[in-house]
Amino acid sequence: MSELSVNHLLGIKYISEADIELIFETADHFKEVINRSIKKVPSLRDITIANLFFENSTRTRLSFELAEKRLSADVINFSAASSSLKKGETLIDTVNNILSMKVDMVVMRHPNPGAGVFLAKHINASIINAGDGAHEHPTQALLDCYSIRERLGDVAGKKVVIVGDILHSRVALSNIFALQKLGAEIKVCGPKTLLPKYIGEIGVGVEPDLRAALEWCDVANMLRVQNERMDISYFPTTREYTQQFGVNKKLLDSLNKEIVVMHPGPINRGVEITSDVADSKQSIILDQVQNGVAIRMAVLYLLASKIKHNED
Hints:
Layout: H1 17-34, E1 48-53, H2 59-70, E2 74-79, H3 91-99, E3 105-110, H4 115-122, E4 126-132, H5 138-152, E5 159-163, H6 170-181, E6 185-189, E7 205-206, H7 210-216, E8 219-222, H8 238-245, H9 249-253, E9 260-262, H10 275-278, H11 285-311
Parallel strand pairs: 1-2, 1-3, 3-4, 5-6, 5-8, 6-7, 8-9
């Protein structure tokens, strides 16, 4: 059986196209499992997984928890808000305490970019990055690309525009890396103040005009404006943002072709997309949610297989 080239999932930039394809094939299998009447498999019965969330998360945390339970793993949930971190305990102390409970894998979300890489060097467990600051969010990118492949048959050769707050988005960066590895063409669209300076250097086009971007693309991935990461104002008002970069049904229907609309969530309905777009047949937002569980099951399963292999 083929296996992943890595022992951790720290970011899309550290994995190969072959790794991504293996994750997708494994997710295909698990997608069948979660659509059966009995949704559990005993694959990770002897694996203990700690979910460490140092930043708030609802969807990603629930998706990982569900994936872990579907695989029959033992799960420990840790929320930093109610932990000794408030008392000054360091990241390594926290994790070492959790590892002394004999944890095999750690799923971690952390506000600092590179936290997962730091941890992987210091502790003996498999690390999955569930988002580190505005840096990477690899499982989101995998489920996004998987959802495109499911709807359009392939990712290679497809034109994908990422619209919105690229600057503060870990989803955007991971998506760009994954889409490039799978052979898609990428453009970004959004207020100039929300586009990072390096964007041209990583082989991504910039299209300032939303209509032109939508006419060009096969898929529009709509990102929300991350107000919680902004210490200054990057555009005049939400209303002006919506007028320039929001997608409504009228705009969608006026295009010369039918495009696929996606969104990593949570959606600010009426800001980046209207409800009638989010709930339309062109939207694959709910598919993304379901695929998130299958993709996370695949990643957990493949990394656990490496743990077992290394033990043997």
